[in-house]
Amino acid sequence: MLRPLHEQWMRRALSVASASPEDVPVGAVVYAADGTELAAAGNERELTGDPTAHAEVIALRRAAARTGSWRLDGCTLVVTLEPCTMCAGALVLARVSRLVFGAWEPKTGAVGSLWDVVRDRRLNHRPEVYAGILETECAALLRDFFRPS
Ligand SMILES: [Zn+2]
């Protein structure tokens, strides 16, 4: 039931991942509890020179601006790559209910690879996690970006 929806959402995240051609292609989308798209973003670190301008942080900020609340209860964050510590922390602070991600990030991942920030029992909010959605497509996008041409 959920998988086709998550794949559809991941395709949307993939479609915004390369919005800034200089940036590492990662895309993030926030969906409301009723499935409405609230915000979408790609990485903008190179574009803006902002070290915190990861796709997830930008999408969370835009979703909060749109709803008028920092609390994103009931929302789902969909992202093409396993979030880093900053983004995992941000989505916990935003009270996002579900995280759906594509490719694993063994070097910096904070949703099971290096750390598991979103399921740390010491925190009072732990989102549901769905990993590996369209993993092959999400990983290929990154591999092509880093491939020397
Ligand atoms: Zn991040």
TrEMBL record:
Catalytic function, reaction form: adenosine(34) in tRNA + H2O + H(+) = inosine(34) in tRNA + NH4(+)
Entry keyword set: Hydrolase, Metal-binding, tRNA processing, Zinc
Residue ranges constituting the CMP/dCMP-type deaminase domain according to the UniProt record: 4-114
Lineage: superkingdom: Bacteria
SUPFAM superfamilies registered for this protein in UniProt: Cytidine deaminase-like
Active-site residues from the entry: 56 (proton donor)
GO molecular function, one term: tRNA-specific adenosine-34 deaminase activity
Needed co-factor(s): Zn(2+)
Keyword tRNA processing: yes
Keyword Hydrolase: yes
Cofactor binding: number and manner: Binds 1 zinc ion per subunit.
Protein name: tRNA-specific adenosine deaminase
Task performed by this protein: Catalyzes the deamination of adenosine to inosine at the wobble position 34 of tRNA(Arg2).
Binding site for Zn(2+): 54, 84, 87
EC number(s) from the headed UniProt entry: 3.5.4.33
Protein encoded by which gene: tadA
Species for this entry: Actinoplanes friuliensis DSM 7358
GO terms under biological process: tRNA wobble adenosine to inosine editing
Subunit structure: Homodimer.
Homology family: Belongs to the cytidine and deoxycytidylate deaminase family. ADAT2 subfamily.
